[in-house]
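pasting for ref
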Amino acid sequence: MSEELNAEFETAESGVSNVYPAQCSSLRKNGYVVIKGRPCKIVEMSTSKTGKHGHAKVHLVGIDLFSGKKYEDICPSTHNMDVPVVKRADYQLVDISADNFLSLMQESGDLREDIKIPDGELGTEIRSKFESGEDILCTVLCAMGSEMVIATKPNSGK
């Protein structure tokens, strides 16, 4: 029996989970929630009165953190929903490769070259600031195994 348990733990992933449960009634506007398997920021939230089956329902509207797509869900207020662990980090932009990957330097001095330049206005802004020689920091949002640059700011920490 103990050998079976050990084998199970050896194959388990180390580290922390990328979501945690939270009671639906404890969620708040501008917080985060997983709707239809996607990490979302809550932009609208309303609670209905207790019905004949005894549960108040919470209606959630969320915007996907990475695609900007709108998702909706209704959940009894006493039930749990997954909340994504969302991390932000600032990296200094060092280079942009020919295949549109960013070279980003962490505070430790290590380079990351696994994040693509974002589409749309932000990607154009990053490229033009880089080409004009500006020293910028890229804010990277990380949730549920996905990472994306969501903003830039001037690097004043020289």
